[in-house]
Amino acid sequence: MGKVRADVCVVGAGFAGLAAARRLVQAGHEVVVLEARDRVGGRVWNRELPDGTVVSAGGTWLGKGQDRVFQLCRELGLAVYPQYEQGDHLLRLDGVNHRYRGAIPTTGPGTLAALGLAFARLHLMARRLPADAPWRARSARAWDARTLGQWLSDPLNVPSAAARTLLRSTMNLLFCADPAEVSLLGALTLARGGGGFGYYTDSRRTESHLVDGGAPELARRMAEQLGDRVHLSSPVQRITHDGTGVRIASASLAVRAQRVIVATPPVLAGRISFDPPLSTAASHLLQRVVPGSIIRVHTVYPRPFWRALGLSGQTLAPRSPVPITIDQTPRSGEPGVLSSYAFSTGALRMERLDPTERKEIWLAALAERFGAQARRPSQYLETDWSSQPWSLGGMIGHFPTGTLTNYGSALREPVGRIHWASTESATLMHGLMEGAVRSGERAAQEVLTALSSGRHATAALSGRSA
After folding, report:
1. Nearest-angstrom CA–CA distance, 389 and 255
2. Which residues are annotated as a binding site?
């Protein structure tokens, strides 16, 4: 096993880890990045189809307010282009396809009013949370004892059955988990970071642009700047820390550093052995912030035929095994690419099927919305994020009931010389690539401050000795 010294070790080469390492290198520090996968990007991933088409299979879209990622694209020479939004969206309910325009699908004025009322109430609740400490809100204990599913099921909150169905499906998408598994306070924490649930549920805001070459190309270029500081296929097994520094042991490399930033999904950070052990709050938090289940399928066609039908490619079918689709056609306009998803318990049910049966069900669901042509893709690619050993699900970890009020104080709090970064710990754009970048830069600033304070303390001691 090789041994190396550095000022800082970063565990994880997703956007959080790469952003942290980049900031530290720019400040003149020696950095080593250890990544478990054989690639960088973490929960963003470019996959190549047999015909050579490359598709982004993880985090893909950028949106309004995601300023840091847009800036990184500019700095690293990557163009972005608008998401295709022309034509009608489709809502499929009770076997009927309903065309609509705008952000919110409805089946009548009653549904629209109920959705508007629910979002307004959730927005007001989210605004009452301190952005950096939601567990300190006056109603935090009550909200953390209740699930998002319980709140949505209450007719006093959502006085329309159709609206409740739409909202549950939307929340399934956001958390890749049944709303019955998600703390109401945890859900509001996500909303607080984006300015309300309206931000996350309006694709015109969160999914307004794509990166030419895919978001993973941005991660690759960030890593390219870091050069041989990045070590792939190096899962970290143990972190030993004391008052003098940290020792990080991976499968292939041992690193001695002054500080370490753990920039992995919390569930994976919880699998690292720490000596001495983490505080109770920190260790319990890492065990509880778990990802949901998601299967994503890319179907490729010679051209985006749905556009000729006056459709945008964006559909919502709450009772379908494949509830969401969106157009992911490249900038050139060909081939036509549909990205479609199964979430939560639906993804678990689909995963248990024989692959041939799963594909048949999946394509039949697309055909219900787009016609028989959807059954005949030239390429079909499945990505089951729950089967990925260094993700264990996607696309973010959610907070079950009781997690934030009991253990939330450990979310960003350093443990000695150990610092934390992940999109789950972001105060702004929580759950998005933007949140991951911001969390990495925040952790890097913590480390820079600590290193500077250490130097000043050493200089002061040297001066007194003289």
Report:
1. 23
2. 35-36, 236, 341, 424
Binding site as annotated, residues for substrate: 341
Let me know if residue 388 belongs to a domain.
yes
Count how many domains the chain has. 3
CATH assignment of the domain containing 123:
1.10.405.10
**pTM as predicted:** 0.94
Name the residue with tokens 């059954």. Answer: 375
Which residue blocks in 305-432 are alpha helix, DSSP H? Answer: 305-308, 344-351, 355-370, 403-407
Task: DSSP letter for 147, please.
Answer: B
> Contact 301/335 with Cβ under 8 angstroms?
yes
Task: Check which CATH number belongs to the domain holding 224 and give it.
Answer: 3.50.50.60
Which of 148, 181, 204 is the endpoint of a domain?
Answer: 204
DSSP 158-222: S--HHHHHHHHHHHHHHHSS-GGGSBHHHHHHHHHHHTSHHHHH-HHHHSSEEETT-HHHHHHHH
Q: Check which CATH number belongs to the domain holding 91 and give it.
A: 3.90.660.10
Instruction: Per-residue pLDDT tens, the chain, 466 aa: give them.
Output: 799 999 999 999 999 999 999 999 999 999 999 999 999 999 999 999 988 889 999 999 999 999 999 999 999 999 999 999 899 999 999 899 999 887 777 677 888 899 999 999 999 999 999 999 999 999 999 999 999 999 999 999 999 999 999 999 889 989 999 999 999 999 999 999 988 888 888 777 888 999 999 999 999 999 999 999 999 999 999 999 999 999 999 988 999 999 999 999 999 999 999 999 999 999 999 999 999 999 999 999 999 999 999 999 999 999 999 999 999 999 999 999 999 999 999 999 999 999 999 999 999 999 999 999 999 999 999 999 999 999 999 889 999 999 999 999 999 999 999 999 999 999 999 999 999 999 999 999 999 999 998 765 544 444 454 4
Annotated binding-site positions for FAD: 35-36, 236, 424
The answer to whether the beta carbons of residues 16 and 422 sit under 8 Å apart is yes
